[in-house]
Amino acid sequence: MDNIQEVVNLQREFFQSNATKEIEFRIAQLRKLESLLRENEDALHEAIYKDFKKSVFENYTTEISLLYHDIKEAIKNVSKWSKKKRVRTNLANLPARSYIIPEPLGVSLIIGAWNYPYQLSLAPAIAAIAAGNTVVLKPSELPINTSNAMAKLINENFNPNFFKVVEGGVPETTALLNQKFDKIFFTGSIGVGKIVYQAAAKNLTPVTLELGGKSPAIITENCDLKITVKRLIWGKFLNAGQTCIAPDYVVVHRSIKDQFLEMAKKEIEQSKFLVEEDNYVQIINDANVERLISLIDADKVYTGGKYNTETRIIEPTILTDITFDHEVMQDEIFGPVLPVIEYDDLDAIIAKIKERPKPLACYVFTKDSEAKQKVLDQISFGGGAVNDTVMHIANSNLGFGGVGDSGIGAYHGEHGFRAFSHYKGILDKATWIEPELKYYPHTKSKLKWIKRLIG
Length: 455
What we know:
One of its GO terms (molecular function) is aldehyde dehydrogenase (NAD+) activity. The protein has helices at 4-16, 23-39, 41-52, 56-82, 119-131, 144-155, 170-177, 190-201, 225-237, 257-271, 286-293, 346-354, 369-378, 414-419, 444-454, and strands spanning 85-87, 96-104, 107-111, 134-138, 163-165, 183-187, 207-210, 216-219, 249-253, 301-303, 307-308, 313-314, 317-319, 337-343, 361-365, 383-386, 400-401, 407-408, 410-411, 421-429. By secondary structure, it is α/β, with parallel strands linked by helices. It folds into two domains: 4-211 and 406-424, Aldehyde Dehydrogenase, Chain A, domain 1 (3-Layer(aba) Sandwich); 216-398, Aldehyde Dehydrogenase, Chain A, domain 2. The model has no long low-confidence stretch (mean pLDDT 97).
């Protein structure tokens, strides 16, 4: 185990030198990271394939390409994001100028997740670097090969006083959380998120928590069913369902339920998840395989349901005749199991969803603008899409984050820069005049003028 306290202390010293506050320094580090990623793409592909058979195609499209996008966007915009911004000065403070200065928070801790190990570790790091922070990165230990690959890439090429990967499991994470950081960014489960939040509270450290929850997909009777099924099946079974914003369950209008199920089964068959080589990933470990198998009620299986514990493969599975009381509806599934609930009344199903913790995502498939607006207005969730799934994460202008149990704060694009910055408000006052109204002695005449000026 690294001497974690020393790592943090050296990063704090480096941050206090003000080196990271120079825009040229930040851009140089981002360019360096991009070059290293490109030079080591093959090694990154190989590592993640060893962990859970994620193909080159999926690794590039769902992880590496998003990192390239984030780096290019940060390099292009970091100067603009970092500039002081003039704001209006109120009457009571005239004559003066008012402005806001973004400044880096300091030494940041980023705890990554296992399901998209490169993207969910390095995307926050890119935002932290762009904002001028130092970074201690703790990748998930479950995909050990990707953790090793990131540690090798970063620790052999960056100054550890600026950017350092600390590998390990619970003991190392606990040791890190016992240190004082200026920012903690965590991606993972709600349970661990609460532990991180409690640890951060001891030092009043600001946090961003990217958690999860049971994200619903609502299908109304007048949707475009063909495109609905295609987009929903893709979003659900991408990464074998191990996606925090995957549709966790479907609520579909009773009048089209049977048709939906038939088309969903055909879409799964046409996608050839288990036929084409490298078209489907493994479940991350044996514990999650057993957990997911326990959720598959054989009497409720419409299609799929088979599994191989040795290869850690679970077929894309659809469960039907499900209610909110079934076991599969109690916690986030995080795997290739899709429960289908039918409904008659949209208002009633919205009320049912609202009874539960706020999800990270919500999707509505409909041609009815009134139904669409009702879902968007009445259900609180982190982010989502109309007539699509998952793809909102690809638009960095939207920001990405949860609400309530699904998380705190947001990132991507400028939202990520903001997550690792403090916005310092400055009043720059002129000295050539100084009204006497606020000074002692207080008089009725002064109070009268103050009421006239500022109400």
